[in-house]
Structure formats: structure tokens, C-alpha cells
Predict the structure.
Amino acid sequence: MNKKNVIFIKGAREHNLKNIDVTIPRDKLVVITGLSGSGKSSLAFDTIYAEGQRRYVESLNAYARQFLGLMEKPDVDYIEGLSPAISIEQKSTSRNPRSTVGTVTEIYDYFRLLFARIGTMHCPECGRVVERQTVQQIVDEILRWPENTKIQVLSPVIRGRKGEYKEALNQFRKDGFVRIRLDGIVYSLDEEINPDKNKKHNLELVVDRLVVKQDIRKRLTDSIELALNHGNGMVYIHKPETNEETLFSEKFACPHCHLSFDEPAPRNFSFNSPFGACPKCDGLGTLTQIDPNLIVPDQDLSIDRGAIKILNNRNEGYYYDMLVSLSQEYGFSLSVPWKTLSPKVKDIILYGLGSHKIKFKYRRENAYVEWYSQYEGIINNLLRRYKQTSSQHVRTWIEGFMNSVPCSECQGTRLKKESLAVRINGMNIYDLTVMSIKEVAAFFNNLKLTTQQEQIARQILKEVKQRLEFLINVGLDYLNLSRSAGTLSGGEAQRIRLATQIGSQLVGVLYILDEPSIGLHQRDNKKLIDTLKQLRDLGNTVVVVEHDRETIEAADYVIDLGPRAGRQGGEVVAAGPPEKISKNKSSLTGLYLSGVMKIPVPERRREGNGKFLVLSGATGNNLKNLQVSFPLGKFICVTGVSGSGKSTLVNETLYAALARHYYGSKKIPLPYKSIDGLSHIDKVIDLDQSPIGRTPRSNPATYTGLFTPLRDIFSQLPESKIRGYKPGRFSFNVKGGRCENCEGDGVKKIEMHFLPDVYVQCEECKGRRYNRETLEIKYKGKSIADVLEMTVNQALEFFANIPAVNRRLQTLFDVGLGYIHLGQAATTLSGGEAQRIKLATELSKIGTGNTLYILDEPTTGLHFEDINMLLSVLNRLVDKGNTVIVIEHNLDVIKTADWIIDIGPEGGAKGGRIIVEGSPEKVSRCAKSYTAKFLECELR
């Protein structure tokens, strides 16, 4: 290749990379693939992107650099031909509750501008159109009235305010006015006027009295101008003969409700601005309140059996005696299930009696104390204590009974009612944000505007339509713009960033993406690939870390890293066009692409145990009153296009309901009627991709429980016994054996004040976390720090004869994590690795065989070979009698399932129905299912 047309990386050694040289053709779509842990991210993000960023930051002045942080040079000899680099990773977008899909994509900013410029204002009270008028328009309107109509021109100067207004009345006299109207009665300013200072008054100046004729235009114009000047832009025209009154305004005002409004501006439609945000919830759309369902989590219990959680099952004490007195006063029993109590009684117990007092009795030693008092109710009691307490412990405890509920004032719309009263073609700004992106695009494509509106909105609409089209092209047409950014999956967040980048129309950039196909159904994959090619065709180099077969085959150039993971990886196994890779017999990727290796279809499907978990009446989000039967003892796959309702059904309804039933979870499941078959399972475990810990102190050894037997081994050594070292000595989380200089972190944080904080290796322990005395204790020549530095593969060999350790290590190896270090910080693990560590932890436990496991896209970040390994682990769980439910798009997983539940047919409002359920063979024959079309090819 010509050096001008390539990016050349020389001697890359970051992490496990083996001093490799890599050539990447410019302005091409390049896929980097390989097993998990083979070094793909180390090459793409930690070497190429990191160096691109470092060079960019170094080109800035010192003032700018202090805000961008210090960037270390990656471990590489040099990189030639590097363009400015933009990384689009799987990280979720902002967790800020104010951040939505609309704000992240900037579409909402264009909406705000559009509604401010061409929106039609309506009165939020009566719904009538509100328009402002010029003096000339007001005069023309009045002169169209029948001739000889008597009118009074009134200027509203005081509206609904208390006072005597003596100074104002004197000023009106000085200004030459003759009459006023006070609370509907006309007075001469010559007479004594004494308004009641304790009442609210409406006061208008009588500016002129006229009879409608064509020759009064000049006089009427002068009178209207004078009235508007004194009346803050408003004027009333009163017809004494019929007592009719019409309000005209230079501003936006409702003549029927006598309300005036500010001229719409973009800030009035922002829920992040006090000008637009709902004043009650400050634009969040939700309020945090005490949840009665968390006060009484099990409604089958009676009060004396512990129904009310805050009583801690104690049938004694001050509060319980108050409930006894309450039951005697209102004639209810504390011994019947909570669900059988009347709504009135429940309301009294939870929310109190207001100012009403009743007689209470309280046992004190051998006597009763009696008194009359108000009863504030459990919820009001907790709210009062929450506001008054200075104890963080008490606040945290009360927060355990709180949940977010839609704001009662804005109903979750986040905006003031005045902002919601501005409409375009009958739709307000919130109406558009709750539509799916596909529906919003259709709305704007069919939008009918006047010539003037079209002229004003042309450029805004162009930007909106473009951005919507980009989102549709990356398979996100099912999302709505009001969706909180924090609820997006990593794949969705990444594709939003991708769509934003395409919208920026940059040229000559190096884009690096991390598995953009995550969460996409095969139907939408082609759109994504076309989008990547579009980015390339603009004149950019697109580097994608990917395992998806279609994406690999669509690439211009493929770099396959391996041959295995961890220390056995980090080499370039093959590089070239996809056809060349598929012919390379030393490339695992090539063997799978060519079909030499493949994940087999099971010879038979499991029958299960004949029992079912039946979820009925599921209506959350887009679900259409579903009744779903999950056959137990089987490997179940829930499939469907993106946004069809898979996560809503499995995660937000089924799992949330089961977690609440078994563990008293705080999270409220989405609406459903019932779940039958709960007696057939004893627990539910959600193996998601959230981190196994938030700090570097968490690692695979601590999470899996492996650290405990390791510390036991070291504490049982003769030298440890002589010194009196217990297992705690070998923990870096407690004083004793750890290095106190860094408190067991291995690094020290140095605050740089105006510069970013710098982490340096602890000079005392040299990053080993322990003090010298602890490190002197060795097992087979290795200290506890040496053991934590081992990979799972190395530790398996080292601890081959110790079952307590070997069993846990074997499960980590079985899920394809042989390359990770036992002491590797949790913060450095990917979501897929974290999920597999959780899976390994479950495998190492001795189970009952009645557990339900739920996994959401477990193939994220996995190569064909890794998926094969994962499937064998999941099948082991099912073979023990457990049930595994997997939400998945990967056909290699779907074809190996015992049972498929396919949801669709489309995403968003057109989804939420069960299209077909049954064995893969049955599903593949369903003409209505998108999944079936692709599955049929896999089963041949």
C-alpha cells in the first residue's frame, strides 16, 4: 500500500499486544475482530484513538490543556498517517435525568425554535386560539362592527389586586381622565371613590366613548393607542347596550379568560429553563414520594403479622399502640390481611386524620396512659421526619420507602401549561416527543404550513428531518425523543452518537466504533452497514471493533487478532479483505466465516419439566395486554426487532415483579394482572452487564468469593501461624496487612488543583497493595500479590490440587475468562466480562435446580468461539433443571434455544404483540415473523 493512503502503527505493546505492526487503509471501512481479550480494544481505543487524542491535546495551548486532562502516550513506537480521531463507544449516555434522546441529538433544540417561530398559541384554560394584534388591526376590527354601535374604550390598569389606590386615582385626574370603571361600575373621577382596601379590585380607565362610524378612525386610533399604553398592551371594548366586552391585545392574551401570555421564545419550551419548566417538579416530570406499596410490600399479611414494614414485625411500642387505638375507634381488625381492609381504613392508617382528634392509649410499664390527639398517618410521619432530620442515616432509611411518580401538575410532561398550549397542526411539543422517531418523521413529512410559516421554518425543518432520518437509518426508529438518556443501552447510545456524527458531515476524520450492531435485529443490520459506508464515503476512515458476520463481510479490510485471549493473544493472525480472511486456516474468524467451524443446531430440544410461569395482562409501554407462558426447565430465547417490547416484557415486567415477590425490591414492575407458577421456582437472578464493583478495590477474586479461600490458604501456612496472621491479614481492604501509605489501593492520588488529579504508583509498596511483612508469606514461592497478578489460566495450573479454589477458577475459565487477572480492577472490565463473571459465580454455587436466570444480550462483545463457550455454560445451568431466559438477536444463540418467544411485528407502537412462540423449527415457519426469515437459513 502507498504510505500516503494508510495509517501505519509500529510496535504496539499496549496491554497484551505483542509489539505488533498494523497497516490500516485510509478512507475505508475496517473491521478489527478476534476473541474476547485478544487485544482488539487495546489496539483500537488504547493505542490508535489514545494517540490521536494525545496529539490533538498537545496541539492546544496550556490554558486549554488544563481542562482536557493529561494523556499518557500509549505504549507504541510510532503511528504514521494518523487523522483526528473520534471514538464512539458503547458507554451509556448521561445519567442526568434532564438528558433525553431529544436533547442528546439536538432535535429538541430545533423543536423549541420551531414552536417559538411558527407555533400557534392557545389559551391553556379554554383552549381558544390566542393572537396578538397591532393597533391598526384592532381599529379595523372595530370599524367592521355595525354602524351606530355605542362603545367604550377601557384600559385595564389594575387586575385582581387589593388596595385603596388613592395615589393612582389622583394621578388619573392629573392625566386628564374623567371616568374609571371599578369592579364593573363606572365612576366619575370628580366624586369621592373609596375602594375597600381588603378586597381585590379590577379597575379600568374609561379612555373614550364613541359611536362606530367610518369617520372616527383617527380618534379611535388615538384612543386605542392611549388605552394600550396605560393597560400594559391590552384594551377592552365595551358595548353598553348589550353589555358585551371584547379584549384586544398587542400581546398574547385570551379575551375570554382575561389572561395574557409572554411571546413564545425557545426558552419557554425548555424543561431545563425556569421559563419553561413545570414549577412543581422543576422540569423533571417526576416527584419523589413515599410509595404505599413499599410501606406494605406484602398485602397478604395482617398488621399484627408485619404487614407494615416500618414496624419491624414488633407488636409493641408507641406506634403499634396507636394503631390498636385507631382500630378500636374505627372498628377494624389488626389480624386480617391488609388487602381486605377498606380503602377508607387504609387511607386513615397511611395518611392520617387531619385535624380530627381521637383517644389514644399507650402502655407504659404496668399502666396505661390515655390522651386525645391527632393522628398524622404513617406516610405523613415519614415525610415530616425526612424534612426535619439532620441524620443522613434516617434520610437514607426513609428513602428506602420512596419512589418516583409522575408530577401531579404537569402529568410528566416537564413543561408549564402555557408552553404546552402552543401547537403546530394541533400537536404541542410534548406530543411530538412521545411519538416514535418514525412517527415524528412522518408528521414532518406531511406537515401543512402557510407560505409564511414555510418560509420561516424551511431551514429548521431541513435540520430536523435530516437528524430523524439518520436515527432511522441506524435502527433507532422505535425510540421516542422524551426517552431518558440514562435508560438507553450501550448499543443504542452508541448509535445515537453515530447518527449525530453523520449529521456533522465531517471529512478526513478517523472514526473508531465499538460493536455498533449490539441490540440490532438482523432486519436493521443492513441499514447500519449502509450508514457506516456513508460515513466512509464522506472521506473518513471508519474502524469498527465487531464480531457480527454481516459487518465483517461488508468491510473493505479486516484485521483478525489472536490467536487466543489474554497473554495468548495480542498478535495479528490475519489481515486483508474478508475473502482472504475466510481462506486463512490459522484464523478462527476465517474458519467461522468459511463455515469450516460453526455452532451446531442441537440434535433435540429439551422437553422441560412440564411446568410454566404464566404472566398475564402485561400492558407496560407498548405491550398489548400480553399473556405469556414461559416453559420451565428450558433454554428460552425472547426475540424481535429493536423496540418491539422484549426488555419491557422480560426486564421491566417479569423480572421486576419476581424481584419484588422474592426480595421485596423497591422497583415497581410495569403494569400486569397476575403471575401464576411462582411456586415452581425459588429465586430469580438477573445476570446483567452492570459493573461488578464501582471502585478498583472490587475485582474478580473478591466478587466470585475466590479471595476467601485464597486468604485461608495463606493464613494456614506455617510462617503465618508463627506470626499469628489470620485471613484478614491478607485483605487489602482492612488495616493490618495492607500498605497503609496507599491504604491498599496500590496507587496514590495527587491533587493538582488547577490541573487534573494524577495517580502515581505507591512508592512504598510499588503498586502491590500489601506491606513488606505480608508479602514475605509465600505459597509455592508466590506472595498474595503475585497470586492476584495471575491470570485465571495461570491460577488454574497453580492451584490444581485445591478444590475450593480450582472449582471457582474452572467456572471463570468455562465462561471464556481465562485471560483476566484475579486482581484486575472491576472498573477495567467490559460489560460483557462483568456479566460472564456473574455467570461464573452462579455456576460455582450449589443450586436447587429451580432458579430462573435472566440475561439481556449476553453475546455482547463475544466472538463466534466465545459464543460457543457461553452456550455450553448456559446449557449446563439448564441441564441442572434451571430455566434460562435470554433476550437475544444473535442467530447462533436463537437456533440453539429450546423455546422462542418472538415479539413484534415492528418496534414502538406497532410492536408489543406475540407473533409466534415455540421451538426454533416452528418459529422459522411463521410468515409474519422477521426473525423467522433469518432463522430459517440458519436451520438448513
